C-alpha cells in the first residue's frame, strides 16, 4: 500500500522546504500529525508518550509535542529492525550507550487536530539546515494556541551515525555526530545562513530560544509508580536552569570537558557549555546584493554561480523583476510549480530589495 501526498517544495539544489512538510502533515486526514527526520529510530516509549498526551485531562487545549534525540555511533548486529526486534532491549541500549543531543536539537514534531501551530506565515526554511526546529517551537509557545510539551526524557528517539548524501547526488560523506555542524558552518554555508536570516526576521524568535527548556510542559518519569511510569508536569519558570534538559541522561553533548596540559590554548575542539549564551542579531545575518570579495556565507548568487546548478538538460528559464513586482513574480513561480518546472528557474533581481526577497523565498 502506498501513500499519495501533494507536491513538496524544494530549493534549487533539491533540499526540502519545511513549510511544505508542515502543510502536508496538517491537512492529512488523521487526528494526529507528525514530522520526523527519516534517520530517527523511534521506540514504543514514543507511541506511549503520544497516547498519554492525547488523553491527558491536564491539557485544556490542543497540543504540540517535540523533543531531543540520543546519538548512537554504532549499533550491534543483534538489533534487527526487520525481524524479531526487541524494543525494550534497544531502549535500554540507547539510554546506556547513547549521547543525549543538545536542548536546541529537536528531531520530531507531533500535534493533534485543532488550531494552527503558530501565528503568521511559515518562512521557507530549508529542511535539515538548522533553526526550523527552534523557530517553530518558539513560535508555538509564543502564540499560545496550543499546549507545548517536551518529551525528551520519556520518549526515546535515536539517531544512528550514517553517511550523508549531498544534494543532487554529489557523493556521500560519513559524519559521526561528534559536534554540531551548524556551529562551524553557520557563516560559511549559505543554506544555514539562509535559515538563520529567516528565523531572525519572521516572528519573535531570538537566538537560542525555542529549545527544550523553553517549553512549558514536560513529560518525564514519575517520582512514584504510575501507569506507563510517566508524568506530565508544568515548568513554572522557563529557561532558568539549562541543565534541566539533561539531568536524567548518562551522557550528553553538553557535558563539560576539562583539558589538561600546558598546550590548552592550542585545543581546537569546541564544547557546548551548559548555560552558554551566544549573542547574535539580525545584522549578523544581513543579505547583501553586491559582490565585495568572498562573502562569508557563499553569496551573492550570480548568473555564473547558478547556471551549472539550476540548468536541466542545458536549459533554464530566465526572468527578472523589481521588488515592486514581487507579487506578480510569485504568481509566476506558483504556476511554474503547478506545471512541475519551477526547479530550473532563475530570477534576475533588478534591485537590492528584490534580491533580498528572492534569497528569503
Average pLDDT, rounded to a whole number, is: 80
Order of helices and strands: HEEHEEHEEHEEEEHHEEHEHEH
Category from helices, strands and their pairing = alpha/beta
Give the spatial strand order of the biggest sheet: 1-6-3-7-11-12
Helix count, DSSP H or I runs of 4 or more residues: 9
- Helix amount: 25-40%
Instruction: Provide the low-confidence segments as ranges.
Output: 171-179, 266-272
**How many discrete structural domains?**
2
- Which value, in Å, is the CA radius of gyration? 22 Å
Largest sheet: 6 strands, mixed
Q: Work out the strand percent.
A: 15-25%
Report on the structure:
By secondary structure, this protein is an alpha/beta fold. It has two domains: 18-245, no CATH class; 300-360, no CATH class. 25% of the residues lie in helices and 17% in strands. It contains nine helices and 14 strands. It has a six-stranded mixed β-sheet with strand order 1-6-3-7-11-12, with helices on both faces. Strands 2-8-4-5 form a four-stranded mixed β-sheet. The chain has a two-stranded antiparallel ribbon with strand order 9-10. The chain is globular and about 65 Å long.
Amino acid at each position: 500500500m502506498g501513500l499519495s501526498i501533494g507536491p513538496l517544495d524544494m530549493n534549487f539544489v533539491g533540499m526540502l522546504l519545511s513549510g511544505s512538510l508542515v502543510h502536508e502533515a496538517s491537512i492529512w486526514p488523521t487526528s494526529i500529525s507528525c514530522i520526523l527526520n527519516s534517520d530517527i529510530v523511534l521506540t514504543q516509549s514514543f507511541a506511549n508518550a503520544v497516547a498519554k498526551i492525547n488523553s491527558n485531562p491536564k491539557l485544556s487545549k490542543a497540543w504540540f509535542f517535540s523533543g531531543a534525540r540520543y546519538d548512537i555511533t554504532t549499533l550491534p548486529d543483534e538489533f534487527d529492525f526487520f525481524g524479531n526486534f526487541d524494543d525494550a532491549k534497544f531502549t535500554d541500549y540507547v539510554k546506556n550507550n547513547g549521547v543525549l543531543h543538545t536542548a536546541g536539537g529537536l528531531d520530531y514534531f507531533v500535534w493533534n487536530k485543532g488550531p494552527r501551530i503558530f501565528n503568521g506565515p511559515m518562512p521557507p526554511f530549508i529542511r535539515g539546515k538548522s533553526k526550523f526546529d527552534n523557530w517553530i517551537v518558539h513560535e508555538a509557545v509564543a502564540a499560545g494556541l496550543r499546549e507545548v510539551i517536551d518529551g525528551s526524557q520519556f520518549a526515546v528517539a535515536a539517531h544512528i551515525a550514517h553517511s550523508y548524501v549531498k544534494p543532487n547526488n554529489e557523493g556521500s560523506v560519513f559524519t559521526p555526530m561528534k559536534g554540531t555542524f551548524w556551529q562551524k558552518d553557520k557563516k560559511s554555508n549559505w543554506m544555514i545562513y539562509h535559515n538563520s536570516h529567516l528565523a531572525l526576521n519572521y516572528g519573535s524568535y531570538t537566538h537560542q530560544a525555542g529549545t527544550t527548556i523553553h517549553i512549558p510542559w514536560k513529560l518525564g518519569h514519575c517520582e512514584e509508580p504510575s501507569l506507563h511510569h510517566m508524568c506530565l508536569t508544568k515548568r513554572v519558570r522557563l529557561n532558568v536552569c539549562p541543565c534541566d534538559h539533561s539531568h536524567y541522561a548518562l551522557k550528553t553533548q553538553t557535558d563539560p570537558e576539562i583539558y589538561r596540559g600546558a598546550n590548552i590554548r592550542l585545543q581546537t575542539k569546541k564544547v557546548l557549555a551548559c548555560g552558554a549564551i551566544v549573542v547574535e542579531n539580525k545584522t549578523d545575518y544581513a543579505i547583501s546584493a553586491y559582490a565585495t570579495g568572498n562573502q562569508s556565507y557563499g553569496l551573492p548568487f550570480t548568473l555564473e554561480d547558478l547556471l551549472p546548478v539550476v540548468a536541466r538538460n542545458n536549459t533554464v528559464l530566465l526572468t527578472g523583476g523589481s521588488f515592486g513586482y514581487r507579487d506578480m513574480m510569485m504568481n509566476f513561480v506558483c504556476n511554474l510549480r503547478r506545471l512541475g518546472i519551477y526547479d530550473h528557474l532563475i530570477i534576475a533581481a533588478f534591485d537590492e530589495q528584490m534580491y533580498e526577497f528572492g534569497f528569503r523565498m
